[in-house]
Amino acid sequence: MTIGLEHYLIVSVVLFCLGLLGVIIRRNLIVMYMGLELMLNAANLALVAFSHFRDNLDGQVMVFFIITVAAAEVAVGLALIVALYRKRQTNDVTDLTSMKL
Question: Could you read off the pLDDT of 26-76 as tens digits, one per residue?
Fold first, then answer.
């Protein structure tokens, strides 16, 4: 049995749905952030799979740019989460509804 494009896409959809559930259901900022990263990586998996099976390197090149942007996003996002936690002493989203610091 060979692994085809549809197998990669199924894994990508499952990862994306798990990330989406993490963002929608959980109220913890860290878990929500991890869900967003999981959704981003699911999109990367789909791009690489399409690129591989179409014999075109455009998708793989795009993934390198996405990973670069994701690294900057991690640095900024975690800095914001740490700053909010130091100010409010909580990482629950329902406690952070007011943006007044």
Answer: 888 889 999 999 999 999 999 999 999 998 888 889 999 989 998 998 899
Domain that holds residue 33: 5-92
Q: Which residue has the tokens 């798990």?
A: 18
For residue 43, the SS3 value is: helix
The domain total for the chain is 1
Looking at the DSSP bridge assignments, the partners of residue 60 are none
Residue type at 86? R
Helix, strand, or coil (residue 56): coil
0.70 surpassed by pTM: yes
> 33 near 52, Cβ under 8 Å?
no
- Distance of alpha carbon 80 from alpha carbon 47, whole angstroms: 29
